[in-house]
C-alpha cells in the first residue's frame, strides 16, 4: 500500500492511498495564498488499518449510510445477512467495506487535470451483497482547483449500489480552530427525517421554519444543539438533505465557508442527496496528523449519495443496479476563497 499525491498548477495537492481510496491530505490556499491541509486524517496506512472507525477520507461502499436491519427485498427475494454494525442497522457497506479494501491504481490525465483511477472487484456475496460488482473511482485534481470524483460500476446480478466519499473537512486547517463557526449552505428545501437509529421514516419533510433550513448560508454551530428532536436524536447534524436540482445532472449540493481564512468549498453532484455529518461522534480518541487530537465536531462531511435505506423505501430514488446497466455518478469539491 502506498500514498499518491496529485498537484495542480496552482500548488493545490491531494494525497490519498490505495487502501480504501482514503484521501489523507488536501492542501488548499486561504485568501492570502497561505496553504493549509483541510482534511482530517492520519499519517500512515497502518493507522487507517488499525482504527479508522470514523471513516476519515474513505470511499464508502457498497452502500453509503444505512440499510435498516441489514435486510431488503430485491426482485421478490430477500437479501439478508448484511452486517449489523450500527445499532440494529447496517452502515457503510459492513465490516469490511470499500474503505478497507486495496484498490488497483492507474494514472490518468487530460486537459487541465491529473488523476488516478482506482478499481476494485467486489465478489458475489461479499459483505452479503449479491453480484460480482466491478467498481471504479477516478480522483481528478483540476487546474480550476476542483477535486473531481467519478464513480462507475457494473454487476453480473441485480444488486444495490450507493457509493460516497467520507472526507472530513475543516477549512481553517485540520489542526486549526473548530469548524463550528463555518457558514453552511445546503441547496435543499426538504430532508429525510429519521428514527433514533438514523433510518429514514420515509417522510420527505420541508426544512421551512426549522433548524434544518440551510437554504441561506449561516453558521451551523449555532443550531447544531437544536432542541428539534429530529436533530437532537442524532446528536447534531447527521442527516440526508433532498437536493433541489435535477437528479442525474451535476448541480449544487452545498457551500461551506470559513470566514477566518476565506476558504470556501462548493460541492456539486449528480446524486439526489447529501449527508451533512458534523463529526458528532469524534470524541478525542483519535490522534491524527502531527499529533492533532480530533475532538467532537472538529470536522464535517458532505457525503453525496442516494438517500439512506433506499432499498427499503420504494418511493426514494432507486439504488438498484442490474446486469447490462452502467452505474455513473460524479461529485466535485471546488475550492475557492472570498
Ligand atoms: C455517517 C453516518 C454517521 C456516522 C458517520 C461515521 O455520516 O451517518 O452516523 O456513522 O458516517 O462516524
Description:
By secondary structure, this protein is mainly β. The radius of gyration is 19 Å and the shape is globular. It has helices at residues 45-51, 229-232; strands spanning 3-7, 13-17, 23-29, 35-37, 59-60, 66-67, 72-74, 77-79, 90-91, 104-110, 113-122, 133-142, 146-155, 159-160, 164-165, 183-186, 190-191, 205-206, 218-219, 238-242, 251-257, 263-269, 273-277, 286-287, 293-294, 301-305, 320-321, 327-337. A hairpin with a 3-residue loop joins strand 12 and strand 13. The protein has a single domain (3-178, 261-337), classed as Beta-galactosidase, Chain A, domain 5 (Distorted Sandwich), CATH 2.70.98.10. The termini are far apart. It is 3% helix and 38% strand. The structure holds alpha-D-galactopyranose (GLA). Alpha-D-galactopyranose is lined by residues 54-55, 65, 91, 198, 238, 275, 277, 281, 301, 303.
